[in-house]
Amino acid sequence: MNKCKYLKLKFNHTIYCTKLNKEIQLKKCTNCKHKEYKVVKKVKIKSKTNNLSKLERNRFSILTNDLDHCIICGLKKDNLHEIYQGRNRPNSMKYGLVLPLCIYHHRLIHSDINLQEHYHKLGQQRFMAYYHKSKEDFRKIFYRNYL
Fold first, then answer.
1. Segment 40-65, tens digit of pLDDT
2. What phi, psi does 100 have (nearest 5°)?
3. Rounded CA gap, 108 and 47, in Å?
4. Other C-beta atoms within 10 Å of 3: how many?
5. Residue 2, Cα to own-chain centre: how many angstroms?
6. Strands 98-101 and 79-82: what pairing?
7. Spans of all domains in the chain
């Protein structure tokens, strides 16, 4: 259909010209002397912040040295899973609380609360040992104590 800014398509599938104030046929619109084209604005696609993208590129793990294989079964990893999610996801990446997982175990960890709790506790223990922090320091960063 024509992109004239005066052209409107009505609910009863008739074409209406707002400049002429009447219903018209499409043929008339193509030869119209009043034709003006709509200005199309570019839509900005909201991207991730540069800081989050940088954290995702530079992920590391204090739980394992091998980020190429699943930490549970040893198969080739499909995903890097941050132990603490939501508002704590950037902190998980920043402090190396990342697990390499195959697709099966990644789905399992999202659906099994007991497995999540196990890695929450393990992550807190390793964080406190690696960074020489207390439970209170962990709670200030991650807003919760899992031990």
1. 667 666 666 677 888 888 889 999 99
2. -80, 130
3. 29
4. 10
5. 37
6. antiparallel
7. 1-36, 54-142
